[in-house]
Amino acid sequence: MPHGPDRTTAPPAPPVSMIERVTLIVDAFHNAGESLTLGGIARRAGLPYSTTHRILESLIPLEWVSQTPLGYSLGRRGLRFRNSAADYSALRGPAAPHLHALHLRTGTPVFLTAMDGIDELVLDRIGGGRTATPGLEVGARGALHRTAGGRAMLSAIAPEDVDELVAVSPRGGLCGPPPSVPALHRELDRVRRRGGLSVERAATVPGFGAGAGRMSAASAIVGLAAPVFGPRGATAAVSLHARPTAPIREWCIPLLVQVARRISDELADSGRDARPAVPASA
């Protein structure tokens, strides 16, 4: 008896579906904190510019993608499914022994933070207790201008890009009042002259200045940070944040700088441009 047509045979592969296109676009972001231009996303996804733009515009209201001054980055939903902690394993792994060693030598809480789109994201903390800067729990987000670590990373960015970044509200966490842009640029200029070393004094932190009964002087150091350089520039920072009764001593500065350099060296590609030197004094 003759057989009818084989209805189980798979039909020819259809053109790329919408789900496949969305997946290609989301996968174009190689790490959680990366910002890409429209052209960069289209090239990585292998899709036409017009198609890429149309899908991106549909993904923004749904918070799969966010539009930033530097292009596009993963939004809240995209970050949730991307698992940002895993994306930073290449940074956190090499940094861990250096962070522990720095804490043992200084006795001060040590933090590793990253520039995650328009936010500062706290990746790791070594050492417990309250610090002079609130909101630095692991996984917390905040405005880049708010902490010494954020300002260390901002100092490596062109001034015009800094203006655009600070004009956008972070995705969550502690933001504080909007910064005075001229004052921020003056501070970043001082950080750049120190080669990226960001210093936070007690007088600048509410409740921790002279006469607060905690720090001995308004000039006491309560926050120190140095940038960590990867293949794409300063994408992270190592910082020390003092406890209320124990300011950071000057001798901690070269130790912090040394740790940031060692982590940068382990992240560096062989052909990467040399990073700026960070002096060992405030």
From TrEMBL:
GO BP: negative regulation of DNA-templated transcription
This protein's record includes keyword Cytoplasm: no
One Pfam family per UniProt: IclR_C
Keyword Membrane listed: no
InterPro entries, per database record: GAF-like_dom_sf (IPR029016), HTH_MetabolicPath_Reg (IPR050707), Tscrpt_reg_IclR_C (IPR014757), Tscrpt_reg_IclR_N (IPR005471), WH-like_DNA-bd_sf (IPR036388), WH_DNA-bd_sf (IPR036390)
MF GO annotations: DNA binding; DNA-binding transcription factor activity
SUPFAM superfamilies per the UniProt record, alphabetical: GAF domain-like, Winged helix' DNA-binding domain
Highest rank taxon of the organism: Bacteria
Signal peptide bounds: none
Keyword annotations from UniProtKB, A to Z: DNA-binding, Transcription, Transcription regulation
IclR-ED domain mapped to chain residues: 77-269
Sequence ranges assigned to domain HTH iclR-type in this UniProt record: 16-76
Listed name of the protein: Helix-turn-helix domain-containing protein
Organism per entry: Tomitella fengzijianii
